[in-house]
Design a protein that fits this description.
The complex is a heterodimer of chains A (368) and B (303).
Chain A lengths: L11 E12 L5 E12 L3 E5 L6 H9 L6 E6 L2 E2 L10 E4 L11 H11 L4 H14 L15 H13 L5 E5 L7 H18 L2 E6 L2 H7 L2 E6 L2 E6 L1 H6 L4 H6 L4 E11 L2 E6 L4 E5 L9 E6 L4 E4 L6 E10 L3 E8 L4 E7 L13 E6 L4 E3 L3
Parallel strand pairs in A: 3-8, 3-9, 6-7, 7-8, 13-20
Antiparallel strand pairs in A: 1-2, 1-4, 4-5, 9-10, 11-12, 11-14, 12-13, 14-20, 15-19, 16-17, 16-19, 17-18
Chain B lengths: L1 H40 L2 E3 L5 E5 L2 H7 E3 L6 E3 L1 H33 L3 H12 L6 H12 L4 H8 L13 H26 L2 H9 L4 H29 L3 H7 L6 H9 L5 H33 L1
Antiparallel strand pairs in B: 1-2, 3-4
Helix pairs in contact in B: 1-12, 2-12, 3-7, 3-9, 5-7, 5-10, 7-9, 7-10, 8-9, 9-12, 11-12
The chains are: A alpha+beta (368), B mainly alpha (303).
């Protein structure tokens, strides 16, 4: 869901310009190499990337635990660079939860309000409300060591939400949970975000998590942002090889640009066949380029009808779908994924000659 | 068959006792033995030239806190002893407090250094331990005596005209004991501080706590075991300190340790010395019980 379609003016919650962070040392480590980002109010925004890409550093700069080497950082239009963490209306859900072990569940949740000097009655009411929100009411007087990992996760969430921050930062909060619990919490987080209307900035290295939960995703690598967009945008139209490779599975095809029309390019494939591919708006590729095609966006057809031709090397059955590995005649290989249903039978067998087709504009021209 | 099993069991039991023997020997001869002898001696009469006469007497215990006036034969509190007890407890408490005030930030400082530097800082704390206690005490004496470094510098700068009398005061004893026992405070606090998960500190700041609130509400409760251990480690030896009050107090600021030494030396009253030793033991025990109970109570309240 791209933001701002409702016709409402967009409010920018967090805005960074040329944000850099270099850790001193021999040699110095550049964690952030000039990041520009605008995160909108009431948005579920995800920072996605492999470990060491700088996503956690960016989060820590926003929280105020560390200061940037250079650049600007604003919150609703005001610079927050001089504000210490306890003066920023931003709360964090830590990767390790960081629950206070010497306090009960209720005391943990009330801590932020207590520090803000709220009256006792208001604290009690908000704590009750938060415990109901994360379904932890029965656990109020438990020690944090006496509850399960999933429950600790909920308490950490309630503790960060209780002071009603403008922005909530979540640092890989689901990574310690098992698969089933993680799925539940993904939905839960999404629900909480839309119920509270708080801007969520979520850090993860899990692409599936990012795709299912986010309004927008920023894909990061080596301290800079590679692409920002909605989940569909990022998945269907990756801007560059890293993004295409990091999110989902992708086939990379060599091709040659034959002409351009807006964001559409006419390309010639290695087989000599022509098709159209999408380009990024701000790019004007020419000559030899690489195309990205998702495995489920292509279909197997008879050899003569295909845009590409090759021999079927392997058929791997996965239950819900089947993967076909094709050795294309130009020497590269191509993987297709097709949904299984009871009425389709495997008519193909290893070694068969096949053709591969995909629709106009399905392929994406990657930026180099 | 049954007989064989029994003899095997017996052999195993014998081996267990044999392996325990060194530990038991130490417990009996090094811990309980001397204590028992001290207890027995405290109920005997003093020998004329030191040692004890083997006859039962409660005079020593009587003399610990009471005294009979030589001329009027009336009973009264033993003011000398009581003031020494009071001074010992007071100076030990103040030493513990000063060690805590200095040791806590030191431990925090070391625990927040990068891992590679921490050992170096710890080494700096421990190095004085490698030197003789007496030499360290004399070094402090050299600093604060009337013609010492501190007074010379202050006079040289024109801050004062007359040297400040620091030596042979209670202040001097506290300085000396703090210097000697500070590592005993730093080490256990550092040990629990190092285990502290510093994301809890960040969580505190994140939840609007100021520096002081983070210290009081997050760090202190979590490193309390270290603070308790450090306080005990400083308080107990301070209470029985002998060398430092002797050198820094100059013989007129006695603490229990000096009083006990007097009875076994010039005083030639071994039973009184023994009774005083047991009294010291009792004071330490009572103090520890009170302290641990007070610290433990707070634990319960915090939940």
């Amino acid at each position: 869901m791209p933001c701002g379609v409702g016709g409402q003016p967009l409010k920018i919650a967090i805005s960074a310009r040329n944000l850099r962070k270099v850790y001193p040392g021999q040699p110095p480590v550049q964690a952030l190499a000039g990041v520009d980002i605008d995160i909108q109010d009431n948005e579920f925004f995800t920072l996605l990337g492999p470990s060491g890409c700088g996503k956690t550093t960016l989060l820590r700069l926003i929280a105020g635990f560390e200061n940037p080497t250079s650049g600007s950082l604003e919150m609703f239009g005001d610079s927050i660079l001089d504000a210490p963490p306890h003066k920023r209306p931003i709360n964090t859900v830590f990767q390790s939860y960081a629950l206070f072990p010497h306090m009960t569940v209720a005391q943990n949740i009330g801590f932020g309000l207590e520090m803000l000097g709220k009256p006792k009655a208001e604290i009690a009411a908000t704590v009750d409300e938060m415990m109901a929100l994360v379904k932890m009411t029965e656990m109020a007087d438990r020690q944090t060591s006496q509850i399960s990992g999933g429950q600790q996760q909920r308490v950490a969430l309630a503790r960060a939400l209780a002071p009603k921050p403008k922005v909530l930062l979540l640092d890989e909060p689901l990574s310690a949970l098992d698969f089933k619990l993680r799925k539940d919490m993904q939905l839960e987080l999404k629900r909480l975000q839309s119920e509270t209307g708080i801007t969520f900035i979520f850090v993860t290295h899990d692409q599936e998590e990012a795709l299912t939960m986010s309004d927008r995703i920023a894909v990061m690598e080596a301290g800079s942002i590679r692409q920002i967009g909605g989940p569909r945008d990022i998945y269907d139209h990756p801007a560059e090889r890293f993004v295409a490779d990091f999110i989902g599975d992708t086939n990379f095809l060599p091709a040659e640009i034959d002409g351009r029309d807006g964001t559409t390019a006419r390309v010639k494939l290695s087989s000599g066949q022509k098709t159209t591919a999408r380009m990024q708006e701000d790019t004007t590729p020419s000559g030899k380029v690489t195309l990205a095609v998702r495995p489920e966006h292509a279909r197997l057809v008879g050899e003569a009808e295909g845009l590409l031709q090759g021999a079927l090397r392997e058929i791997v059955y996965f239950g819900t779908d089947t993967h076909f590995h094709v050795d294309i005649d130009d020497g590269t290989s191509f993987v297709l994924r097709q949904q299984n249903s009871p009425d389709t039978e495997a008519r193909l067998s290893q070694g068969d000659r096949v053709g591969i087709i995909f629709g106009d504009g399905v392929a994406q021209v990657l930026r180099d | 068959m049954a007989g064989q099993a029994t003899s095997q069991d017996q052999a195993a039991a014998r081996r267990r006792w044999l392996l325990l023997a060194p530990a038991l020997t130490i417990l009996v001869f090094a811990a309980s033995g001397p204590l028992l002898i001290t207890l027995v001696y405290s109920f005997l009469a003093p020998g004329a030239f030191g040692g004890v006469e083997w006859e039962f007497s409660t005079d020593a215990w009587f003399n610990v806190i009471l005294q009979r006036d030589i001329f009027e034969d009336t009973l009264g509190w033993s003011d000398a002893h009581l003031s020494i007890f009071w001074r010992s407890v007071k100076l030990s408490l103040m030493t513990t407090l000063v060690c805590l005030i200095l040791g806590f930030p030191t431990a925090y400082f070391i625990a927040t250094r990068p891992k590679s530097q921490r050992e170096l800082w710890m080494l700096l704390i421990i190095i004085p331990f490698w030197t003789n206690l007496l030499i360290r005490t004399f070094a402090i004496l050299e600093l604060i005596r009337n013609e010492g470094t501190v007074n010379s510098v202050l006079i040289g700068l024109g801050v004062i005209d007359e040297p400040i009398q620091m030596l042979f005061t209670e202040f001097a004893i506290i300085i000396g004991m703090v210097y000697v026992y500070l590592p005993l405070m730093v080490l256990p606090i550092y040990a629990s501080m190092e285990r502290l998960n510093f994301s809890l500190v960040e969580a505190g700041y994140d939840l609007y706590a100021t520096r002081f609130q983070v210290l009081r509400r997050v760090i202190l409760p979590l490193v309390k075991p270290g603070v308790i251990a450090g306080s005990i480690l400083v308080f107990v030896p301070s209470l029985g300190a002998y060398v430092t009050p002797r050198v820094m107090g100059g013989g007129n600021q006695l603490m229990i340790g000096n009083l006990i030494e007097l009875q076994f030396g010039q005083g030639r009253n071994w039973p009184l010395g023994a009774a005083l030793s047991i009294t010291l033991l009792a004071i330490v025990m009572v103090a520890l019980i009170l302290y641990v109970r007070a610290a433990g109570d707070e634990d319960v309240r915090h939940g």
